[in-house]
Design goal:
Blueprint lengths: L1 E8 L3 H10 L6 E7 L5 E5 L2 E5 L2 E10 L4 H12 L7 E7 L24
Helix pairs in contact: 1-2
């Protein structure tokens, strides 16, 4: 199992969400986050431009079985990429175990419903 964390532009979130759903990745969490990077955002408030050093992004967090890692990464890349600085990052992190609280199932089976597989 792997945990995939993707930091993406806010404007690309809906595209990434749709791409993940098309790739049969139906469960994920997302968070509004701020960070600092090479990209800078200028904000205009009442006609005055403010340069902000923090950048607003979305962090998408997904735990998938090993067989779904590449299709998940590909879906995110294709949906989030603009080719400009500030598109974001994808991190792939090993996961030791997963436990479904309702049933106590452990491992890969805790990530999906076996009866719906196939």
């Amino acid at each position: 199992m792997k945990k995939i964390e993707a930091i993406i532009r806010r404007s690309k979130f809906d595209d990434v969400k749709e791409a993940l759903l098309k790739a049969d990745i139906e469960w994920f969490s997302y968070y509004d986050v701020r960070g600092i990077g090479k990209s800078r955002q200028a904000r205009i408030y009442r006609g005055i431009m403010y340069d902000t050093s923090s950048i607003e992004r979305i962090l998408v967090s997904i735990v998938v079985r090993n067989k779904n890692v590449e299709k998940t990464v590909t879906a995110i890349l294709q949906a989030a990429q603009t080719g400009e600085i500030g598109d974001g990052r994808i991190f792939i992190i090993p996961v030791e175990d997963a436990i479904r609280i309702r049933t106590g199932e452990r491992g890969d089976i805790a990530l999906y419903n076996a009866e719906l597989e196939e």
